[in-house]
Specification:
The protein is 31% helix and 18% strand. With 454 residues, the protein is of the alpha/beta class. The structure holds ligand FHN. Ligand FHN binds next to loops.
Amino acid sequence: MKITMRPIVFAIVALLTFGNVFSQRKKDMKLTDDQRMEWWRDSKFGMFIHWGAYSIVGGERGTKIAGGGAEWAMDKLDYTIEEYEKFPKMFNPVLFDADAWVAMAKDAGMKYIVITSKHHEGFGLWDSKVSDYDVMDTSPFKRDIIKELSEACKKQGIKFCFYYSIVDWHHPQAQGNLYPNYNISQHDDPSVVNPEFPEYYENYMKPQVGELLKNYGDVGVVWFDGDWISDYTTEMGKDLYKYIRDIQPNTIVNNRVDKGRKGMEGMDMEGEFAGDFGTPEQEIPDTGIDSDWEACMTMNGSWGYKPSDNNWKSSEDLIQKLVDIVSKGGNFLLNIGPDGFGRFPSESIRRLKAMGEWTKKNGEAIYGASASPFEKPKWGRYTKKGNVIYAHVFDWPETGTLKLHKDIKIKKATLLTDPNTELETLATSREVLVDVPVLAPDATVSVVKIELAK
Ligand code: FHN
């Protein structure tokens, strides 16, 4: 009997077509807020990248060094717009390698990347059709950095996200109350605003955000900044949040889309402000915030590349900060400031590698974990996942006895890195004792996995 291949081929093509249509539909399907936030809540750890023409300047002008972040060079080093425009014309980061950047983030245990598409300086790292003040039309580099990075993220399974600055020192309608349109009355009287800012918002800023959302595939998070200027209103913030969600329904947006209020301690008037998570910066809340939040932090003291700043946090400190943040229910967005050639600073690379070594061994106690139900112990932190408590021990007990919260009912205790060796435990009226090896399994943070009794 002759078997024709035609029906089989037809069935395969039909299945493949249905599969593609279904996955596209699923991507565009409007998720519930919890479904939409799920990947972000589970991720816990992301990379912030501050990169732009300021990365050439490095925070220096002659012998003068800008205080604070080097990405503020235009303001802090008193460049006029005309003087500053020479830097985008020099921007030619020939060593930029998106695949290598994404691989370093992934190896560090980071699950998403937020890159500055445009910082306060106004220079765009993508091929904008709204403005020529971008990497394609103004710089000799003429490569679409946002395109290359978003494609590298997709290839390696890392969520692509972008930062966008509302204040724009290069745009005469959006310079806010600082550079160069410094207006002491606006500084002292927030009611003094630029009457042309609404035109910038409608005809420049929204179209730029729109092209970033329409031309570079799925965007995990839109991370706004510069919302502090009086010109930008909460009405614009709510309008912009809706605009974003209409284009990509499942994109997450930070609270700086709407005056930075949502999800901040004492400022979150339920429902009054747009945004999906709070953004404490350079600090970790004492006890966590009872809504979604992400602490962003630099490795040294500057977001943008600043060779004069050698105040680097140790790898140990950064790992313990990650644990502290997760134990309080937050995410950690850790910053890299690449130089003008497109290289990560070697100090950053070393810290990323150290964090990757730790997360590879202990990631089970971080990714998808939730805040500790117990107050933080003196020796470290707790995280929780289902019926398991993870004790993250910063200060390993020299006595060989780890003291846990008295309410912890243990079914089984092991070292996370030695799951086959059960540890002896003893519950007393005041605390629960666990016999642990005299030597800490990890030099930075050692994790004891505690399966709870039902
Ligand atoms: O002014 C910016 C600063 O340069 C940097 O981008 C940080 C990162 O969140 N945000 C603003 C300061 O709050």
